[in-house]
Write a structure and sequence with these properties.
The complex is a heterotrimer of chains A (about 450), B (about 425) and C (about 270).
Chain A lengths: L5 H27 L7 H37 L3 H4 L4 H15 L9 H37 L8 H41 L2 H6 L3 E2 L14 E2 L2 H32 L2 H16 L2 H22 L9 H26 L2 H9 L4 H30 L2 H6 L17 H9 L8 H34 L2
Antiparallel strand pairs in A: 1-2
Helix pairs in contact in A: 1-2, 1-5, 2-5, 2-6, 4-5, 6-16, 8-11, 8-13, 9-11, 10-11, 11-13, 12-13, 13-16, 15-16
Chain B lengths: L1 H8 L5 H6 L1 H43 L7 E7 L15 H10 L10 H5 L6 H11 L7 E7 L2 H7 L16 H12 L3 E2 L5 H4 L12 H32 L4 H13 L4 H15 L7 H25 L3 H9 L4 H30 L2 H5 L20 H10 L3 H32 L4
Antiparallel strand pairs in B: 1-2, 1-3
Helix pairs in contact in B: 3-18, 4-6, 10-13, 10-15, 10-17, 12-13, 13-15, 14-15, 15-18, 17-18
Chain C lengths: L1 H19 L3 E12 L2 E12 L3 E5 L6 H8 L9 E9 L2 E2 L7 H7 E4 L10 H11 L6 H14 L3 H4 L12 H13 L5 E5 L7 H14 L4 E5 L3 H7 L2 E6 L2 E7 H6 L4 H7 L5
Parallel strand pairs in C: 3-8, 3-9, 6-7, 7-8
Antiparallel strand pairs in C: 1-2, 1-4, 4-5, 9-10
């Protein structure tokens, strides 16, 4: 339990090193009666950075790789007769069992070897955390000892500190790239494993999606059919419904607010419309289930139409509502970017507002508006909670908005929710769907961002 | 200028004069009507948007407000004969004690109706009595009254959510239960106080006992992790990109990357968290720490974009002024630009955190939708968060959970309103216009 | 000050008839403009003769553009702007509620400081006005209007072979002549020009000045300019504005050679402004 004191100990060491560095340069400067190169604080910071950064790197590396190494040591120390003939999946199960026992959770009667392994795991974990504490503190102390010797009036502490913070900032901005790479790699890696079980083309062009049921007896993954087309069709249907709601309402809202509304109305209505964007999607999902879907069913029954309880219409319409402020605020920006001189030019020719808007402003703002709509489409395709709650689970390639359909995101969530083993095609299929979702939205986003950027440059 | 002369040969028709004619005036009126129609479409669109917002909030309030109060039954507990070891209060037969206390409410009913009687109050009654005695051991050997939440059905009956006049086979409470409820009410044993359990209890299978405390703590931990990670990293990245980065292909790529990340579906971040944090690094499932890390990756682009906008809004003259008196570039930024940009950065951060607070999908994928009946005691213990708790409750069939879901949503929206209000206040208070 | 203004105004009104010998086209009396609380124009009165060029000069912010924008009611597009007094064109009150801006602006065209071609083809730019007013019956009718407008703006030779290309690709001078052609295409009676050459190079400016002189035959032209030489070159009548008041209004020769008002003299000789 030494490790829980590590942040405190390290924090105190850093504080100490800062104070010590600052005092040291002050004393040295007084003794030599010279003005040091940098302000006193920079010398303190210099020592503190030396104390903190290497220690932090050691901690991070230890936390990342320590458990992996410990697990590997434990597994390799298992007697041969226990591990003989086990494939990787069974080994994984065994490892999970050992960890569960080590955590104090015992199911059934584990073999002596497993119990021994669990004890070894616990003791190794203890050793590892103690070792980490000792190593980290040693590293910090060593770094203090090294760096304090360099503190002298002619030492350029500010430049050193600034160079370090510069690279720290570079590191932080690279994290965005790392995140993207992480997304791509993790999706690719798991999808690759999936495509070893289910052929790529079958996934892309298969017309049956039923993760529970085999489509062919000889199928490698005799667990279900993984043809993504019907899932994609459901996604498209719901997104189309959403856009049919959101585009007219959002666009007309933007046009009214940007071109017609007096300043006072605009100032009060715009933020209220944007509240719609701040409402969490789960709230919309609940709204769809609680209010919109039953209402649609009643309406359908009244005119003799059979509406499924989780119809694409309900999910799509509510998703459309969610997207209204998205489209209205992006279109509003685009309309505002059109220079006033064009409005004046049209007005001076005797055009009415509507003629000015439709024939001059709108075409001029079109690239910006299209960019906004593409971003909205990308958001509709990637939207999860509304469809998880309000759309169906069964893949159904239909164009009837009153039937239940499922979407890519719904399938990802339902396949991964709860405890599932990580090797079954069901779980891996979720990553393949995730990859598909990522590629589609990435494409839409890139096009949209390029279009809007070009557009913004045109009128700047 | 022969061009001009040839043009002159056809006398110009003055459109203005034609418009003044009767025919022209009619045409102008038609154009104005089209304009008015177009304007009306805009107003209708706004009304639709605002109307839906009103319906949404109205539905939530009307279905959720009842969950803020809870029907309670005052039960008299007789511990004179109970066998309770003061050293080990927990071990006593609390189930039997509770059953006895409940049955004593209805002395007229035969023992065969024990089940009907038990169904009047929450099934958590034994634990509530036990906890009361553990808090106050002096109760042992005495007779005392205690408020116990009514069962979900009776709660709904009391709140009027169940129609007494509908046929008996259409409602979930029997005529007998209605009679018993009326009897209790006549005896003055029914009360409907503010539902403190909603804010102090964790999840439960029984709606009358379920509360949000566990979810609130879980969300708090996750947001704290998210803030600690995303805020410094996001701001450092923004400062680098806006103030120090050279304009080249590399930084342009980072910029495109960040803009794109801001638009990546949140469920994909969930997949990332699942594959990297849980599978590769072997972090615990359902832990707020992992939830917070996943949310941090999602929030970071928002913070970077907002912070860059805030930095961009600081006029270059400020930097030049600082550089002119001999400050280093970093000193100029740290001492002069950053303080001025801070309000904008904080606003962006709060808005990003508000988004993260409402985010559900990534948390579902890393298992923060587990059924957990105690608030998490650390960043690593399994927990739910507010939105995932809403998801769990929305999926539960019991009637009481519908109201609780709406109430939970109202609580969540309350937090969001507060966060946004802080952001707006910060902006108006600290932002400077140039 | 007030007295001086009205005095200058009444003097110049008489001059107007004498010099150009043209009937009055625009007749303004005691025109005031407020932007919210702030008054931008104080009781401007003037008679502008038909088929001539009238120039408004004065330092920045003197109200000359504001007054120009009153003549085709462009100020209507600004919410907080209110106009008082009376302006008539051919004896018709343009602020009469029964007359609407669409009708008015078809009679009073305007060219702006910065060329503002619509992001459409050259052809569509010219055709826009006739189209919205719905007065073209056939494609050939429209072609005729486009051609004659471009010819009258002296642009036909340069662009006749690329009418379908976007107007935004033209040079600044061409764009401004296109805007003039676009105004002409509606065949207005009056063309207002708000510093039409301030964003152009000297050669383009010369082109436009030449054009203005030619257009005078068919249109009444009112031009706001910063450039005193330009006013002297192209206009017959000149009005000098200062701080929202019309200080002096007379025929151009008189204003430049024999100003009645010392402030005008100071401005013209370059002592302020």
């Amino acid at each position: 339990m030494l490790t829980s004191y590590l942040p405190v100990v390290l924090g105190l060491l850093i504080l100490y090193s800062f104070v010590m560095g600052r005092r040291r340069i002050r004393v040295a400067a007084d003794a030599q009666a010279v003005r040091p190169h940098s302000q006193f604080g920079y010398y303190g910071l210099y020592v503190a950075l030396w104390c903190g950064l290497p220690a932090l790197i050691v901690v991070l590396a230890w936390l990342m790789f320590g458990p992996v190494i410990v697990d590997a040591v434990v597994m390799s120390s298992l007697p041969d007769q226990v591990t003989a003939g086990l494939d990787s999946a069974k080994l994984g199960l065994l490892e999970a069992e050992i960890k569960a026992i080590a955590g104090g959770v015992v199911f059934g009667e584990p073999s002596a070897a497993v119990v021994a392994a669990a004890e070894r795991l616990n003791s190794l974990r203890g050793i590892s955390s103690t070792a980490m504490f000792v190593v980290v503190v040693c590293v910090a102390l060593g770094a203090i000892a090294y760096s304090r010797r360099r503190v002298a009036p002619d030492f350029r502490a500010r430049n050193k500190v600034e160079r370090t913070t510069f690279w720290l900032m570079v590191l932080c901005s690279v994290i965005a790239i790392v995140t993207t790479v992480g997304i791509v790699l993790s999706l690719l890696f798991e999808s690759f494993r999936f495509f070893q079980l289910v052929p790529f083309w079958e996934f892309l062009f298969g017309t049956t999606w039923d993760p529970q049921m085999p489509i062919r007896a000889d199928q490698v993954a005799a667990e279900g059919a993984f043809g993504a087309l019907p899932v994609l069709a459901g996604t498209v249907l719901i997104s189309v419904i959403a856009m049919l709601v959101a585009i007219p309402v959002g666009l007309l809202t933007a046009i009214y607010l940007a071109e017609y509304a007096p300043g006072r109305v605009r100032a009060s209505v715009k933020p209220v419309v944007e509240i719609l964007a701040g409402i969490p999607t789960i709230v919309y999902g609940f709204f769809a289930v609680l209010t919109v879907a039953p209402w649609l069913r009643q309406m359908g029954a009244a005119i003799g139409l059979d509406v499924a309880p989780n119809s694409a219409m309900a999910a799509g319409a509510v998703m459309g509502i969610m997207i209204i402020p998205f489209i209205s605020s992006l279109s509003d920006d685009a309309l505002h970017a059109v220079p006033q001189s064009l409005r004046d030019g049209a007005a001076a020719l005797g055009a009415t507002r509507r003629e000015t808007i439709i024939q001059v402003i709108f075409p001029a703002a079109l690239p910006g508006i299209v960019g906004g709509i593409l971003l909205a489409v990308s958001r509709a395709i990637g939207e999860t909670m509304i469809v998880v709650m309000a759309a169906g689970l069964i893949a159904n390639a239909t164009a009837n908005p009153f039937e239940a359909v499922t979407t890519v995101t719904v399938q990802i969530v339902t396949l991964l929710i709860g405890d599932t083993e990580f090797d079954s095609p069901k779980t891996l299929a979720a990553f393949a769907l995730g990859l598909m979702l990522f590629v589609i939205t990435l494409g839409l986003n890139l096009v949209a961002l390029t279009v809007t950027k070009k557009y913004r440059e045109r009128y700047e | 200028m022969s061009e001009i002369e040839s043009a002159m040969s056809t006398p110009p028709r003055t459109i203005g004069q034609e418009l003044m004619s009767e025919e022209g005036a009619r045409r102008v009126r038609r154009r104005y009507r089209a304009d008015a129609r177009f304007r009306a479409y805009g107003i209708i669109a706004i009304c639709i948007a605002l109307g839906v917002l009103a319906i949404l909030v109205g539905t939530l309030v009307s279905s959720g407000y009842t969950a803020f109060v809870q029907t309670q039954v005052r039960v008299t507990v007789d511990l004179r004969d109970a066998d309770i070891d003061p050293a080990d209060v927990r071990a006593a037969n609390w189930r039997g004690i509770a059953t006895g206390a409940i049955e004593s409410l209805f002395p007229d009913l035969p023992q065969s109706d024990a089940r009907v009687m038990r169904d009047m109050v929450s099934q958590g009654a034994p634990f509530i009595i036990r906890d009361a005695v553990m808090d106050d051991p002096a109760l042992i050997g005495t007779v005392f009254d205690i408020e116990i939440p009514a069962s979900d059905r009776i709660d709904q009956l009391n709140k009027g959510a169940i129609d007494r006049d509908s046929p008996a086979d259409h409602r979930v409470v029997t005529d007998q239960q209605i009679g018993l409820f009326d009897q209790l009410e006549a005896e003055g044993r029914i009360s409907t106080p503010f539902n403190t359990a909603l804010f102090t209890a964790a999840d439960s299978r029984f709606p009358e006992l379920a509360g949000l405390w566990g979810a609130i703590v879980g969300s708090f931990y996750a947001l704290a992790v998210c803030l600690v990670l995303a805020f410094p990293i996001g701001i450092a990245a923004a400062i680098y990109l806006e103030e120090f980065a050279p304009k080249n292909r590399w930084t342009e790529m980072i910029e495109i990357n960040i803009n794109n990340l801001a638009a990546v579906p949140s469920v994909v971040f969930g997949l990332l968290g699942l594959a990297v944090f849980l599978n590769v690094f072997g972090m615990p499932r359902s832990a707020p720490l992992v939830g917070g890390m996943t949310l941090a990756l999602m929030t970071m682009p928002t913070i970077i974009i907002a912070s860059r906008a805030a930095l961009k809004a600081v006029p270059p003259s400020i930097r030049e002024g600082a550089l002119g008196v001999g400050a280093s570039h970093q000193q100029a930024v740290l001492h002069h630009v950053l303080p001025l940009a801070m309000p904008g950065m904080l606003t962006g951060t709060i808005i990003g955190l508000a988004q993260a607070l409402g985010e559900t999908a990534p948390l579902l994928l890393i298992g923060m939708n587990a059924f957990i009946t105690a608030a998490p005691d650390s960043m690593l213990s399994p927990s739910t968060a507010l939105p995932t708790q809403i998801y769990i409750w929305a999926d539960s069939p019991e009637r009481g959970f519908v109201a609780r879901t709406s109430a939970a949503i109202l609580v969540l929206l309350g937090f969001l309103v507060c966060m946004n209000a802080i952001a707006i206040w910060l902006r108006s208070r600290l932002e400077r216009r140039w | 000050m007030n007295e001086a203004t009205s005095h200058a105004g009444s003097v110049s009104v008489q001059h107007a008839h004498d010099v150009t010998g043209m009937p009055t086209k625009v007749h303004a009396r005691e025109v005031t403009v407020h932007y919210g609380e702030k008054q931008a124009l104080f009781g401007v009165s003037m008679d502008i003769p038909a088929n001539s060029v009238t120039a408004f000069i004065g330092p920045s912010g003197c109200g000359k553009s504001t007054f120009l924008r009153c003549i085709n009611r462009m100020n209507d597009t600004i919410d907080i702007c209110s106009v008082g007094g009376r302006i008539t064109i051919d004896e018709q009150d343009i602020y009469d509620p029964s007359l609407d801006v669409v009708q008015l602006r078809a009679r009073v065209g305007m060219v702006f400081q910065k060329p503002n071609p619509f992001p459409k083809s050259i052809y569509d730019n010219i055709a826009y006005g006739p189209r919205i007013h719905g007065l073209v019956r056939s494609k050939s009718d429209l072609d005729g209007i486009v051609e004659s407008s471009l010819k009258r703006a002296g642009l036909w030779k340069e662009v006749s072979d690329r009418l379908s290309e976007p107007a935004t690709g033209m040079s600044g001078g061409q764009q401004q002549r296109l805007c003039i052609a676009r105004a002409i295409a509606v065949s207005p009676e009056i063309i207002l020009m708000d510093e039409p050459c301030s964003a152009l190079d000297p050669i383009s400016t010369a082109h436009i000045e030449e054009l203005i002189d030619e257009l005078r035959e068919n249109f009444t032209i009112i031009i706001v300019t910063h450039n005193l030489q330009q006013a002297a070159r192209v206009s017959q009548m000149t009005g000098f504005f200062h701080l929202g008041k019309l200080i002096e209004y007379a025929d151009t020769g008189d204003v430049f050679q024999n100003p009645q008002h010392s402030m005008t003299e100071d401005y013209i000789t370059g002592r302020f402004g």
